[in-house]
Amino acid sequence: xxxxxxxxxxxxxxLGCSKTQAQPNPPEKGWLWYKEEKVxxxxxxxQEEKKPSSASPKAEQLSxxxxxxxxxxEFEELLSAAALxxxxxxxxxxxxxxxxxxxxxxxxxDYWVLSHLMDSKGYSHGGxxxxxxxxIAQKEREEKLGxxxxxVSKKYGLFFAFxxxxxxCHKFAPVVARFxxxxxxxxxxxxxxxGTLAGIANISKDNGALSVINPDGIYPAxxxxxxxxMEVIPIAWGMVTTEQLLNNMEAVLKQKEMKL
Length: 260
Fold this sequence. Notes:
The chain is α/β, with parallel strands linked by helices. The protein is built from seven helices and five strands; from the N terminus they run H-H-H-H-E-H-E-E-H-E-E-H.
């Protein structure tokens, strides 16, 4: 039995060896003789061409005027909604928006005052709101204008056009007389109907001059007249106050740039 077992073992070993020899040798793998597979490079993804955006261009920034217009329209819409449906919520929205505007307006006024303090450009004595200051400035203005008018009266006189039946002419005559006396003007009354006026001594009947200097027949009418140059400048149509007469004379002097 032992021999048979030994023989069987030998036969089995032989068979195993023959099978092993019959198999082809597998390719050797390992360090140095490792057959490296070539890795194919992956194709690069194609870059998509940038297509022009179909979106509309960015809206232009609104100007301050456009923004202000928008705010006005928004307020008007709120106000209209509250008027149509006066609920507490709607009215409160209008009130709050109104307060917002008032705060902005108050800030503007504060900065306006500050701007005048920091920058003196545009300052004038006549523009100062202080009543005492304005009173002094007005007095200085009248004194300066008065000196100018006294110089003007050396070359110019006054033509006072009137008619006897005009009540405004009678009322205006004393005003003109006082003005002429104060600033040394000579008065020449021109009557369209040959009448007279109290306080006006030198009066002549119209010889046709009024149709040229007063074609619309407005009475009373007052003119500056230069007998040397025959220049005639209207300074009052109808009855005016002494203050208005001074303002008109000042405007004429500035416009004509009279050299005194």
